[in-house]
Amino acid sequence: MSLEENNRNKGMQRFQASMHLGMGIVYLIFGVLVIYVRYFGAIELSAGVAYTLGGFMILYGLFRIWRGVAFFKQRQRPD
Q1: Closest by alpha carbon to 59, among 24, 21, 33, 23?
Q2: Tens of pLDDT along 4-42?
Q3: Higher pLDDT, 72 or 65
Q4: Interior/surface letters 38-76, b for 16+ CB within 10 angstroms, e for the rest
Q5: Cα-Cα-Cα-Cα dihedral of 10, 16, 22, 27, to 10°?
Q6: CA-CA distance, 1 to 4, in Å (whole number)?
Q7: So what's the pLDDT on residue 5?
Q8: Residue 4: what pLDDT?
Q9: How far apart are CA 75 and CA 14, in angstroms?
């Protein structure tokens, strides 16, 4: 593998890790927002649907953040 291809792969890995972190934060915010907005009655969702949807979004957001951190740790290892 040439140096240019290696740098391109590292750049792509950094981009993927950043996307995982960013999207994880977005999912966390939306999950909390769904639960919060339902609690104050701004959207017409039943409590079960709002808590289930919000909970799944929070769990998925945490998974994406974990995966992004794992990508960053993997990238820091010496090749």
Answers
A1: 24
A2: 666 667 778 888 888 999 999 999 999 999 888 876 666
A3: 65
A4: beeeeeebeeeebeebbeebbebbeebbebbeebbeeee
A5: -160
A6: 8
A7: 62
A8: 60
A9: 8
Residue whose pair of structure tokens reads 């291809």 in the numeric block:
5
DSSP code, position 45: -
Give strand ranges (E) for 1-79: none
Half-sphere exposure of 74 (CA within 13 A, CB side): 13
Residues above pLDDT 90, as percent of the chain:
41
Residue in the structure block whose two tokens are 């990238």: 75
Instruction: Give the list of residues 6+ apart from residue 71 with CB closer than 8 angstroms, or none.
Output: 13, 16, 17, 20
Angstrom distance (rounded) from CA 66 to CA 78: 21
